[in-house]
Design goal:
With 226 residues, this protein is mainly α. It contains 10 helices and 4 strands; from the N terminus they run αβαβαββααααααα.
Length: 226
């Protein structure tokens, strides 16, 4: 239904005789399958060449498609806080957001040491996972796989290490080769294994300096995957 409505709205809103040089669309991707979301991203990118395009959405799939297809766009996150205070921040890459959040948590003094450590490690794992998922999607879709096939592959290999192996080598069976992909560092195995485990059964230092070092090392490894 949304696709049909957009097919009627967009030609009228962007007609040569229209006096408006902007386009505002509210939550357009509801009930769309991934292929239609990609198509909408391309269509809006085409229209943005000669007008401003503004899209509001609670659904991150359109933003994810824009990032994956490297469409030039500014993505903003609007958050309503306590007492209706509203914050707006630019979201360049979910991977960087997870790492920034991990740094913020490392500085948080109101959390217990164990909770703070587990949250930092989990956020770093989420950064690895987000990058691996995007890499798999970009590679597989670029070689002709359907969205359904890519989603099935990611669901089959839900562990972060398996997804990294698929992103690096094309197959999850090479999960044990992941550590060898990174430049030799004495801490590589420790950081990778902690991130792959996430906040489950963790141990290790809980002080702020050590946690910030952990985030820096995770970021270095992620940089080698990019």
């Amino acid at each position: 239904m949304h696709a049909l409505a957009l097919s009627l709205f967009l030609p009228r809103a962007t007609a040569p005789g229209s006096p408006f040089r902007f386009l505002v669309v509210d939550d357009p991707v509801q009930a769309m399958d991934p292929a239609k979301v990609d198509g909408l991203a391309r269509t809006l990118a085409d229209h943005s060449r000669d007008r401003q395009v503004v899209v509001f959405s609670h659904d991150d799939r359109l933003a994810s498609a824009v990032r994956r297809m490297e469409i030039d766009a500014t993505i903003l996150q609007v958050t309503r806080m306590r007492q209706s205070a509203v914050t707006v921040r630019q979201i360049a890459d979910p991977v960087d957001v997870y790492l920034d959040d991990a740094r913020s948590v490392a500085h948080e003094e109101e959390l217990t040491d164990t909770v703070r450590r587990d949250l930092v490690v989990t956020l770093c794992r989420n950064a690895f996972d987000a990058l691996a998922v995007r890499s798999v999607q970009t590679t597989k879709l670029g070689t002709g796989a359907t969205h359904a096939e890519v989603e099935a592959l990611l669901n089959k290999h839900g562990a972060t290490r398996d997804r990294i192996a698929v992103a690096l080598f094309g197959e999850a069976d090479r999960r044990n080769d992941v550590e060898g992909h990174f430049r030799a560092r004495p801490w590589v195995r420790e950081v990778l294994r902690a991130c792959m485990r996430g906040g489950h059964g963790g141990d290790g230092p809980t002080d702020r300096a050590s946690l910030l070092t952990f985030v820096e090392r995770a970021e270095e490894l992620i940089g080698q995957l990019r």
